[in-house]
Amino acid sequence: MEQPALQKRARNRELTSLLSRCLLLFLLAFTGDFAIAGSDTFDEYAVKAAMIFNLPGFTHWPERALSESSGTLDLCVVASDRVRGVLAGLDGRAVGKRRFRLRKVDTEMKFSGCDLLFVSRTEQHKLSHIFRRVEGQPMR
User: Fold this and answer.
1) Residue 25 neighbours by CB distance under 10 Å
2) Which of 7, 36, 46, 133 is deepest in the core (most CB within 10 A)?
3) CA neighbor of 121 nearest in space, from 3, 34, 2, 1
4) What percent of the residues of the chain are helix, what percent strand, and what percent coil, each to the nearest 5?
């Protein structure tokens, strides 16, 4: 009787983790342009990079995902070179016991091995295709 309850709890955690990633993808893809009055140095993607950097601290990662990991937190990016350049500042940065590893992905590539997926606003026209590509795939 105890085993099904544990399995259900583990499944709920995995679903919560998946929903967190989908929410992040949605928020990052549909966040509109915004600016801070009087700030010439403000960069929307620098703020998004900070959000991405802090996100893992609020995410429950399934134990098996961490044990299968190579010590990296793979951030797959579908974006222009300019946006990837801003996000490149995350590459190699420590997140707990893991380090961010940026991976440029094309919408025709497989997204397997991605822990986080970032799709910039400039690529939002590809979202339905991307959602079909990641459907049913464990993002570790």
Assistant:
1) 19
2) 133
3) 34
4) 55, 15, 35
pLDDT of 27 over the 50 cut: yes
- Residue numbers of the domain that contains 56: 2-31+42-134
Q: Is the C-alpha dihedral spanning 123, 125, 129, 132 positive or negative?
A: positive
Count, residues in the chain = 140
**Count of Cβ atoms closer than 10 Å to residue 125 Cβ:** 8
Q: What is the mean pLDDT of the chain?
A: 75
Q: Is residue 139 part of a domain?
A: no
Digit-coded pLDDT (tens) for 67-120: 555 788 889 899 888 888 888 989 999 987 889 999 988 877 777 778 888 988
In eight-state DSSP terms, residue 32 is P
* Residues with Cβ within 8 Å of residue 50, at least 6 apart in sequence: none
For the chain, list the strands marked E by DSSP: 72-78, 94-95, 98-104, 116-119
Q: Is there a domain that residue 20 lies in?
A: yes
d(C-alpha 6, C-alpha 56), whole Å: 24
Report the percentage of the chain scoring pLDDT > 70. Answer: 69
